[in-house]
Amino acid sequence: MGVFVFLPLVLPLTAWPVARLAELHLHPRTATRLLTAVAVVMAACSTLCLVLLMVVGTAQLPGNPLPDGWADPEVRAAVPYDGVAGRAAIPALAAVTAACARTLWRHRRVTRRARRALTGLRGSTVAVLPDSTPYAYALPGARGRIVVTTALLDGLAPAERRALFAHERAHLAARHHRHLLAVHLAARANPFLRPLRSAVAYTAERWADEEAARAVGDRRTVARAIGRAALLSATAPAPTLAALAATGPVPRRVAALLAPAPAVRDWPPAFTAAGAAAWGAAAGTVVSAMSSANSAVTLFLVLQTATPL
User: Fold this and answer.
1) What is the DSSP string of 41-100?
2) What is the pLDDT of residues 140-160, one digit of tens each?
3) In angstroms, what CA-CA distances link 38 with 50, 121, 206, 281?
């Protein structure tokens, strides 16, 4: 097992340049899916790494619930371990569990609050709130709905309203809330994955922007709608339900919409910047998964031998 058990803890560092390259060179749809998958796999591997460190490093501590055979000197000699790392893994795992549970709880609480706010409002897909605070967001669920306030609609031209609705419908159709929740949980499990969380928040918005541009047929109209909605929503207080609407870096989104549409390509050639991002992410994920699997299988075989049925 050796040093391989520690690799998944630090391999997410390799995803930082990959996240930047993916933002710039991959199609937003491909970048969102790729970076979400990379974040989830690396987070799972780093969590498994902490579990292995805890099991191996604390087997000889008094009062642990592990089988006595696991603390045998011959077993300890066969399984390289670090007592300090094993002890440190215990509070680290507790912190990861608490952070992920809190993220899930907050996600559920905000969603419930948003749904309660729509109780009694007519409309199957669009809910217009008589609110003086301008904001809009896509509320996921079995009956996904677009929520928008009258203040925001009053500030947009008819064509810009169509672009806004197309953007929010794209969020619902692609279930972007799942990608965002997954990368948020991954960043809680391993702080080195925070750049991927920021990257996915941006690429998911860009994905919706491109879908809106395709539906409306005018990239400039979508760019104007995004810019004007951002200016109108700048004063929205954070504690309100407007917190569901994460707009991302608006100037970059507008600039991308004013440029030609990105090429739609599921997997770019390897000898390009986009290909380097995709293959780099894939390589780092594979190495992390293989090192975790190697450590887990090695530990399982050794401990199975030490504790025969």
Assistant:
1) HHHHHHHHHHHHHHHHHTTTSTT--S-GGGG-HHHHHHS---HHHHHHHHHHHHHHHHHH
2) 876 788 888 898 999 999 999
3) 18, 40, 19, 7
284 vs 42: CA distance, rounded Å: 9
Each residue's pLDDT tens digit, 177-210: 899 999 999 999 989 889 888 889 999 999 999 9
How far apart (Å, rounded) are the C-alpha atoms in residues 168 and 222? 12
238: left (phi over 0), alpha (psi -120 to 50) or beta: alpha
This prediction's pTM: 0.82
Ramachandran area for residue 289 (φ above 0: left; ψ -120 to 50: alpha; else beta): alpha
- Beta strands 126-129; 136-139: pairing state: unpaired
Length of the chain: 309
Dump the DSSP string for 113-134.
HHHHHTTT---SSEEEE--SS-
**Cα(129)–Cα(242) distance, integer angstroms:** 12
User: Going by C-beta distance under 8 Å and a sequence separation of 6 or more, which residues neighbour residue 167?
Assistant: 208, 209, 211, 212, 222, 225, 226
- Single-letter amino acid, residue 176: H
